[in-house]
Amino acid sequence: MVDGLAELRGQYPVVLFGVKVVDDQERVMKRQIFRQDDYLSPHDALTQLFSNSSFVRFPAIAIQRDVFGQVGYFNPDCKEPCDLEMWMRLFAKHGVYCCRSVTVAYRVHSQALTMGSFHGDTVRILLALFERLSELGMLTEREVERCKGLFFHSVCVGGGLATVAAGTLAGVSAGDGIIRVAGT
Fold first, then answer.
1. Residue 160 burial by CB count (10 A; 0-12/13-18/19+): exposed, middle or buried?
2. Which residue from 48, 74, 84, 172 has the fewest beta carbons nearer than 10 Å?
């Protein structure tokens, strides 16, 4: 990350790098990389952020220190999705520069804090964030609604598969690539 940031010479206040998503055995599950180095305008950055719940992997983002003075710090009132709320404020002001170089591994495992974070309170907070996104006026209402559908789809599919794989959903198990629901 340091080399990539040095190359950019402070030109972009918010920079996002690629990641390898690995399991608890360090096996690469997927590479989340950008096709090319590219700056996303605030509109495009917000569209990506609110269309894909995994667009920003926390250890792969770099933010210039003085930017926090401009947009503020994490809002603890937003609980689990406080990072999404922070990225929204950052991207609305600065956009994001995406670097295709992979700088970190992001580990997915059953003991991650995010595994238990999707519940009614989180959904209410996320819906409120979509309202705030709409109020920014950077995306049309149609774009916001499309983003909302894509975002919740990625959360439900990703979270549901992770829950099944971890075996923490009562009556559901996964084996040999087949999901089995008790009683079926």
1. middle
2. 74
Residue 102 has what DSSP assignment? E
Per-residue tokens: 130: 């979509």
The DSSP output letter for 41 is P
In a domain, 143, yes or no: yes
**Full residue range of the structural domain in which residue 85 is found:** 2-157
Q: What are phi and psi of 42, to 5 degrees?
A: -50, -45
Q: What is the CATH number of the domain that holds 14?
A: 3.90.550.10
- Residue % of the chain over a pLDDT of 90: 41
Total tally of structural domains belonging to the chain: 1
User: Does residue 82 fall inside a structural domain?
Assistant: yes
* Per-residue pLDDT tens digits for 121-152: 888 899 999 999 999 999 999 999 999 999 98
